[in-house]
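Purpose: get a first structural picture of the assembly so the mutagenesis plan has something to point at.
Setup: four entries, given in the order below. No constraints added.
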Amino acid sequence: MTKKKSKHPTLSEVAKKAGVGTTTVSRVINGGQRVDPQTLARVQKVIESLGYMPNQAARILKGDRTRSIGFVIPSIADPFFSSCAEAAQAIARAHDSLLIVLTTQNDAHAEVESVNVLLRHRADGFILAPGNSQSQVLRTLLKRVQVPVVTLDRPMEGMPIPAVVADNFAGARMATRHLIDHGYRRIACLTGEPTLYTLHERIKGYQKEIETAGLEMILDASIKDYRSAEYAVESVLAAPNPPDALLTLKNSTTIFVFEALQKLGISVPERVALLGYDDFELAATVRPSISVVQQPIEALGRTAAELLFSRMLDGAGAEKDRGKMVELHTRLIPRASCGCRPPQN
Amino acid sequence: MTKKKSKHPTLSEVAKKAGVGTTTVSRVINGGQRVDPQTLARVQKVIESLGYMPNQAARILKGDRTRSIGFVIPSIADPFFSSCAEAAQAIARAHDSLLIVLTTQNDAHAEVESVNVLLRHRADGFILAPGNSQSQVLRTLLKRVQVPVVTLDRPMEGMPIPAVVADNFAGARMATRHLIDHGYRRIACLTGEPTLYTLHERIKGYQKEIETAGLEMILDASIKDYRSAEYAVESVLAAPNPPDALLTLKNSTTIFVFEALQKLGISVPERVALLGYDDFELAATVRPSISVVQQPIEALGRTAAELLFSRMLDGAGAEKDRGKMVELHTRLIPRASCGCRPPQN
DNA sequence: CTGAAAGCGCTAACAT
DNA sequence: ATGTTAGCGCTTTCAG
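Result (structure tokens, whole complex):
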């Protein structure tokens, strides 16, 4: 109401009011090197009184980094990705950068749009969990991107983009092996959307181990919600030669299947054992407790962010990581549902 | 390797290559109004071939909005806040804006720093879930903020900032009433950090209803992890006149307490009933299923974001919402742990 | 130690 | 319909 546009005070306003040049003010807000202590104090006082804050846009325009990175994931409500996000945000903060979260529901169009948004905002780099590594539009777009990119959880196969993933294949093999070691011989694998890289890899791991052991593969990839899980469990157990163990390949599937088993009154692990992929908060609390393959979720997010920053800071030397794939190890957490412990624990 | 700095192509480069003025290019990228179809096509072709993308920073510098909003929350791994974030991000996207997520672990210093970061970036507004509404630094800072702010889940008491919260007081009253109606007479309330607005309100609701019914208040606000939960459950049940019902006031507390009850082999609801605050994925699946007060989480995030945008778009007219407090209703989901259903369900 | 001045990429008068 | 030009707020040579 006093000035013309009552907006934010500018650097030159500070300079004028402090009776110094803009250069000096600039120096002050950038660490105060090479400035007379007297002037420095005076300028700081003016900054204080005016409530001045440097305008990022102007700095960026001068060619600086934007100090922001993008984080493009299917959903932020998904505990897997929200934990990754928490870790990534911590790394971003440590590098004095902002994390811009964009969600895509695994939709290729949304992914392209998100990347475009980040490009316009001149994000310094971004982390991406692509729903489908085959999307041509996305691949084409990514080829033109000038800033560092790191994929998380799912690589863009055949592209020179570093990826941070869990060892899905090995994890599923280990899980299958564990069930075999328990003496189970008819091990069914339950999952959803095998188009996702992670699930695809896990299915391959299951398959590999089953074949190695000379057993029969029993695969049902139709699970998308509780309904389909209940249906799948009923059908598979009603078959002539029903499975004695169930391997579920992702968190929601495990939970749906567990709910179905419970609802149908099927005793675990007596009638059928259960081993899930992805740990979850109540896995150790439900009865029976659920054995799972645990992914290093937090480490995935952290590693992806660290890798991204290392590439960003490396300048052009980022070549060294091109197409590099970091595989983090998963662990098997044995609990009661696979038969490792009495059902009461 | 061809040009000097091999950076992003600029608008004037496009103009030059297309043989037009910068204004024309500007018009093209802003909808192409008042441009000859011929030229428009030509310019678009050049844009395409150069892979040109407008530089947001330059636009912002011209005085435009930054088309980004801040989202400052304690943690993004917390399912409550990540669901809010998902909803807020959807609204932001609908308004063609970015969501910048900042986490604070409820630390006042981190909150102030986060707000400062957003201010420097000239975010168009932000949503904030303050850990402690009393923090003087934060209050002072917020007073100087020029852009719209909306608090989420926890208001800044006594400040002219609109708040979107759940009806914590009413929710806890309703829960307590429900237990009383079941015939329980010794109802213990278990919780953590009563400094948080939400918990404080819920405790007051519990207290109010207990007093109204002429019962004795039994409060333990010491729960912060599984250890303390187990300890609290043991002590409270070992007392001379132990409770016949437990009311837990937040999601993690409910889960810790449930785990402790299970571990200690205490039958629910026979020996002691349990009613929790916040629904969670397996609440209906564990045995017994847990009755809870369910918060409209997604609506909280959505409403906060909508309110923020309405204030942002309102220009100065945003006065109308000053200090307004939107209270969203919670629901009681009766399951087995309070005695509403046989333990098997 | 400090200041003047030249842009960074874009938009918006103001011309033509 | 389209070009010219003056900044937006800041950093950064280059001279004092």
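Chain A has three domains: 11-54, 68-166+298-328, 168-295+332-338.
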